[in-house]
Design brief:
The complex is a heterodimer. By secondary structure, chain A is an alpha/beta fold. Chain A has helices spanning about 1-10, 15, 20-55, 55-105, 110-115, 115-160, 160-170, 170-210, 210-215, 220-270, 275-320, 375-380, 410-415, 440-445, 460-465, 475-485, 490-495, 510-525, 540-555, 565-570, 590-595, 600-615; strands at about 350-360, 390-395, 400-405, 430, 435, 450, 530-535, 560-565, 575-580, 585-590. Chain A has a 6-stranded mixed beta sheet, with helices on both faces. The chains are: A alpha/beta, B alpha/beta.
């Protein structure tokens, strides 16, 4: 058991090692505090004994002063004990949280697909908190309780072993009851938490479908269903209360019993003349002060259990190996430094797909098990399905390739493989003739300006969002990028211009504005390869044309891969590739495809008409 | 230390503000942080939720007061034991003395038994108090959640356009939970502590007034320490709550957008940002650790000072015979009890602060005005001949916001039993048209009339019951297929459901399911294809046997095979019903009695299929496009 606990705690050791000295210091302070803690009732004891024998008033003042000084010292060390030990737990929590975040930034896209955001969130907040409680209060209170018990028992046994024995028989009962109740309370509490997420889901569903509910005048029945959950939730809470409401009264009774024992047994001892009245009072004071440590003992056991369970959950994330990372054994190609003059020639980079086949579950499955079992459900239906089939394609440096094809044909997958968001088989993708794994991951991605299909902006200012992917950028560069993306006039219309906040705390951008911001974000990086994954779908054709022309001049000489549903976007490309079911079925220029193709000319015809209609 | 063993983590420790983050946990955004810990206006409003349960509250309160009173008994008994049996002293006999044995051992046993009885009552009273108080708390929370949910159902649809669902969910769950914590963590017991203090003060004064006053002399210092502590800690907790909210927001956002972070080589920068927030969090916490680390010892020192004063001053009195040792001992015990509630109070402070912030947000939601509701005196519903489902738009102007007109001067009459098709581009205002019929929104100018009565005069429920609506995005609830068809309408029988399934050509599919129409539907119907979901929502509309049928692009995401089934069903559905069909696919609408072409919020063309084709306008061009598309599909 002890060994197992030790094993479970292992992930924590790195976080505690730097604090060894501080822990020792904290322990020293704790011992000093307990020393004075034990001293205070002793002073009272002597004072009372002297009182019964008649003392001088000078001596009384001395006792009072002594008591005050002892309390002062005790307070002083209590301060340091708390500061040091709780402080450590906060430092360790900080380090742990930082490491966790660091680690998350290294994990691959497939990890984030497997695990729900809420799940990752709860691990990095609730579980982290439980671990912190274990490190700080857990350690402080268990240490303090043990030391205090030892000190108090020693002194009390010295006064009267019999009385000590009587009173301390209750200590394990108190601790036991706290553990027992703690567990039951925790179980019921968990049941409530589970119910809480049911209610959340239910409310979420109702509110998201509010139009349907209203259209069918179903408010009443929806309310009734909610009430059922609500009532059930209340019932579970009341179940908890039945235990919880008992907990403190029982503790109070037990502590009262301790006092009663001292009164009864101690009183008899005094009456028998075995102990003095001072001893009796001291016992009383000790027991009153021991009450909380006894409770703490049980509480610490619960903290410990919860902390360990949380630590385990936390460790599943921390021990997840990043699937996509630099191979430590590889010799990396260093990036040619862009020099003026020569730079013109090396602006673009060639991309080659060499017999590339890919399926999502074919990724080297290191620890592909999801954090929660639920998220794995999609993978079955997907098993053995190749998303891309034997793609062979050479995109010369500086050329523009367009990819068209029906939804789900693998277009996005293809471009996601270039910056290694997902891992393609070794040897199947080459940039500038070099296998992509031979680049450092950071270098590889730095070459690329990627505009993903689903625009994701951060709740920062527009300026920060555009300059997202560059170390430093001048006002001018950001403006220019916005101009190229056709966003400048929109931004100038905002009252706060580039400093406008995006997202919930600021303005809500339209779909088109978001897409254009994402384009600006890619442009400002001055990338060698530009990838537009259906990046202009929310922009009307006219604006699209404008943006494309500007892009072309701004990114002259760069390699571009453009995915689009619109033929107007792709018709000027150097090469158009039609992807159907993960395989290339047609390729050529616009003119060639119009002549020999089947899928492409149909698409073209259809969209011509649509355009005409839009102009009406 | 009531918070100590709670399932939610220790109130005893500086750790509890972690809970504050929970309120913002649902939508992970920064919550507005309020500094006030006690707001009498909010508190009074919260208390109104207890009014319905006043008898229980009364019992709990009485139990609480009795409990506080009984707490005084213990030290009092000790005093008698000491004075009577342990250090026999001359003194005024108390009322108890006449009952007690003169012999010390049996007398001690008597006192012990009395003490035990007191403990027994203490236990009973405290259990009664916590149990009843928390039960009432649960009821109040239940009522509050019901009220919020009910209110959400009454709020105008416009409200939902502006408020993300996640945030609303947080109001009902997270924020109410914070209030709940106020009940369970024993903040309520603080009031009990006040009574304890009061009774202790009275007993002490009664036992020996001068010694009591000497003991109380440290009180001003304690008050001062508490006030200082509160001021410091209030700021800390506010910073902690802000930091927790920001950590959550940052995490949620970056976990969601991690691939963007990685694509743009932002790992280091975003880590640096996170580190900064994390440091703020740590600093705020360390400040609160400091405040606690100063406050606890300070209170302990002051309580020790009080005991020192008792020893010194009381000792003198004992020496000159004006005080018994028993009183001295009782005073020491009272002093110890006296300071514990004060320490406790500072713990509850943080929870109280969070509860105030949450209730403020809850009340803000509850106070959100209901702008669309049934009139107090709805117009008499036409029956028989008049209730045929005739629709009229009369000079209707509508904008979701300000002057951005979505509909401009729409005039349209649809006779009962007629089928109207509405076509036009995205953003032309087609869906808005149907939203106005259901009175999801109110028009700015003009009138929408059903059977000659303005929709604003209708009882809302009765108005909406006339319609069967199939929306663009078929929305299914978790439950079964049957429950999705029936929704909550009780008078739809199993047979009706089966008929509807048959009618929309869904029967074959349903039969292939292991559980038939009892097959489970998961959230948003994720286990079904879009086409199947669409057909289920068709069946839903049919089962409700509406007078007016609205199909809003209901066939847009249906594959060709399903489309054929739907077209077949559609013909049956629109017979004997006023129908409005919004469609992209012109094949679905060719049989409409009239086709309306909308463009930029206006009705541009209107007429039958043939008439419109002859006009060679917008409709003709649309038709050309469709025709080509079908050709491609056939190939």
């Amino acid at each position: 058991m002890a060994m197992k606990t030790w094993q479970d705690l292992r992930p924590l050791f790195p976080y505690l090692r730097p604090y060894r000295q501080r822990y020792l210091l904290g322990l020293g302070s704790l011992l000093a505090e307990v020393f004075f803690w034990v001293a205070v009732p002793q002073i009272i004891r002597f004072a009372i004994d002297d009182l019964t024998q008649g003392v001088t008033s000078d001596k009384l003042i001395q006792y009072a002063a002594l008591l005050f000084v002892a309390a002062l010292c005790k307070g002083f060390f209590l301060y340091w004990t708390r500061m040091i030990i709780i402080g450590i737990s906060r430092d360790a929590e900080y380090a742990l949280r930082n490491d966790l975040y660091r680690h998350l930034t290294r994990l691959s896209s497939s990890f984030f697909q497997r695990n729900r955001v809420g799940d990752i969130m709860s691990r990095s907040t609730n579980d982290l908190n439980a671990v912190r409680m274990l490190l700080g209060p857990g350690i402080m209170y268990s240490g303090r309780t043990l030391v205090i018990m030892a000190g108090a028992i020693a002194i009390m046994a010295h006064i009267s072993p019999k009385l000590t024995l009587y009173t301390f028989t209750l200590a394990p009962i108190i601790a036991g009851i706290v553990v027992y109740f703690g567990k039951r309370i925790h179980h019921r509490f968990e049941a409530i938490q589970a119910m809480m997420s049911d209610i959340s889901a239910r409310v979420q569903e109702s509110l998201a479908g509010i139009r349907v509910l209203r259209a069918y005048a179903q408010e009443e029945s929806d309310l009734a269903q909610f009430q059922m959950l609500n009532r059930d939730f209340m019932e579970r809470n009341r179940k908890l209360i039945r235990v919880w409401g008992m907990f403190y009264p029982i503790l109070e009774v037990l502590m009262g019993l301790v006092t009663v024992t001292v009164l009864w047994a101690g009183g008899r001892e005094v009456a028998r003349g075995a102990i003095t009245i001072g001893d009796f009072v001291a016992f009383n004071v000790y027991m009153a002060q021991l009450a909380w440590p006894m409770v703490a003992l049980g509480w610490v056991v619960n903290l410990h259990q919860r902390g360990l369970a949380s630590l385990k959950r936390l460790d599943t994330i921390l021990s997840e190996t990043p699937e996509i990372a630099d191979d430590p054994m590889a010799h990396f190609i260093s990036m040619p430094a862009p020099k003026d003059g020569v730079a013109e020639q090396i602006k673009g980079a060639s991309i080659e797909f060499r017999n590339l086949s890919f399926s999502y579950n074919g990724v080297p499955a290191t620890s592909a098990a999801a954090l929660s079992e639920q998220s794995g459900k999609g993978s079955h239906s997907r098993s053995d399905r190749r998303v891309l089939k034997e793609i062979n394609l050479l995109i010369p440096a500086g050329s523009t390739v367009a990819i068209v094809g029906p939804t789900g044909c693998g277009k996005s997958t293809l471009v996601n493989l270039i910056p290694r968001l997902f891992e393609a088989p070794t040897g199947s993708i080459l940039i500038d003739g070099v296998e992509i794994h031979q680049y450092r991951l950071a270098d590889l991605r730095r070459m690329i300006g990627f505009v993903p299909q689903e625009t994701f902006l951060f709740s920062e200012t527009i300026r920060e969002n555009i300059a997202f992917g560059v170390e430093q950028s001048s006002e001018e560069e950001v403006r220019q990028a916005a101009e190229v993306a056709g966003l400048l006039s929109d931004i100038d219309d905002f009252p706060r211009g580039f400093e406008t906040m995006v997202g919930e705390r600021g303005i809500t951008l339209s779909g088109g504005q978001k897409q254009r911001a994402a384009i600006a974000r890619a442009v400002v990086r001055d990338p060698r390869i530009v990838i537009l994954d259906d990046a202009l779908s929310s922009v009307d054709t006219y604006t699209e044309e404008l943006i494309l022309t500007r892009l072309q001049s701004a990114l002259r000489g760069r390699t571009a891969v453009v995915i689009s549903h619109r033929t107007s976007t792709v018709k000027h490309a150097d090469l158009i590739v039609v992807l159907v079911d993960g395989a290339i079925v047609e390729r050529g220029t616009h003119a060639e495809l119009m002549q020999h193709g089947t899928y492409y000319p149909e698409l073209y015809q259809k969209q011509l008409l649509e355009e005409e209609l839009e102009k009406a | 230390m009531r918070g100590g063993g709670s399932g939610s983590g220790g109130g005893k420790l500086a750790g509890s503000p972690g809970k504050g983050g929970k309120a913002g946990g649902g939508d992970h955004r920064e919550e507005e942080v309020l500094g006030k810990a006690y707001d009498s206006r909010l508190m009074r409003r919260l208390l109104t939720y207890l009014i319905p349960y006043w008898p229980t509250v009364l019992v709990a309160s009485l139990a609480m007061i009795l409990h506080s009173l009984l707490q005084v008994v213990g030290p009092f008994l000790t005093k008698i034991a000491v004075d009577r049996y342990l250090v026999a002293t001359e003194r005024h006999p108390t009322f108890l003395d006449s009952y007690l044995s003169p012999e010390s051992l049996s007398g001690l046993t008597q006192i012990t038994l009395l003490y035990l009885a007191t403990l027994f009552f203490l236990f009973g009273l405290e259990y009664l108090q916590t149990y009843f108080m928390q039960m009432v708390g649960q009821r109040a929370m239940f009522d509050l959640r019901s009220q919020m949910f009910h209110h959400l159902h009454r709020l105008p649809t416009q409200f939902y356009d502006h408020n993300p669902v996640g945030r609303l969910v947080t109001r009902i769950t997270g924020d109410v939970d914070v209030l709940n914590e106020m009940f369970t963590s024993g903040v309520v017991a603080v009031f009990g502590d006040f009574f304890s203090l009061l009774f202790i003060v009275i007993v002490m004064l009664q036992m020996d007034a001068s010694l009591a006053l000497v003991t109380f002399s440290v009180l001003p210092l304690i008050m001062l320490a508490t006030a200082l502590f509160r001021r410091v800690v209030r700021d800390c907790y506010r910073r902690i709550r802000t930091a927790v909210a920001r950590i959550n927001a940052h995490l949620a956002e970056h976990v969601t957008g991690m691939s963007v972070v990685q694509l743009f080589n932002r790992e280091d920068k975003s880590f640096a940002e996170f580190d900064r927030i994390n440091q703020d969090h740590k600093k705020a916490f360390l400040d609160s650790v400091f405040a606690h680390s100063v406050f606890y010892p300070a209170v302990e020192i002051l309580s020790a000072t009080a005991i020192a004063l008792i020893l010194w001053y009381g000792g003198h009195q004992v020496l000159d015979g004006s005080l018994t040792i028993g009183v001295l001992v009782a005073f020491i015990q009272y002093a110890q009890r006296f300071f514990r509630p004060i320490q406790d109070l500072s713990e509850k402070y943080n929870i109280l602060q969070g509860a105030m912030a949450s209730s403020e947000r809850i009340f803000r939601l509850i106070d959100e005005p209901v702008t669309i509701e049934s009139p107090v005196q709805p117009a008499a519903i036409p029956s028989g001949e008049q209730a045929a489902g005739q629709i009229e738009f009369r000079n209707v102007w509508f904008a979701y916001e300000g002057e951005h007109w979505i509909l401009r001067n729409i005039n349209l009459t649809i006779d009962s039993g007629q089928t109207i098709a509405v076509v036009g581009h995205t953003g032309a205002g087609k869906t808005t048209l149907t939203s106005l019929l259901l009175r999801f929104y109110d028009v700015q100018k003009g009138q929408v009339l059903i059977d000659g009565i303005d929709v604003r005069q209708w009882n809302l429920q009765k108005l909406r019951r006339r319609f069967g609506v199939v929306l663009q995005d078929p929305y299914l609830f978790s439950g079964t297929i049957e429950s999705n068809i029936r929704l909550g309408t009780p008078d739809i029988t199993r047979q009706d459901v089966e008929d509807a399934i048959e009618e929309v050509n869904l029967a074959e599919f349903i039969r292939s399911l292991p559980e038939g129409h009892q097959e489970e539907v998961r959230e948003r119907g994720s286990s079904l294809s879009v086409g199947q979901k669409q057909l289920i929502s068709f069946a839903r509309a049919l089962a409700h046997d509406p007078q007016i049928l609205i199909l809003d692009e209901a066939t847009s995401s249906v594959d060709t095979e399903t489309e054929l089934r739907v077209r077949d069903a559609l013909t049956r559905m629109i017979t004997n019903r006023t129908s409005i069909i919004i469609a992209h696919r012109l094949s679905t609408i060719q049989r409409a009695d009239r086709i309306i072409v909308m463009h930029k919020g206006e009705i541009r063309e209107s007429g039958s299929h043939q008439e419109l084709l002859a006009q060679r306008g917008l409709y003709w061009r649309l038709y050309q496009l469709q025709y080509k598309e079908q050709e491609i599909a056939v190939k």
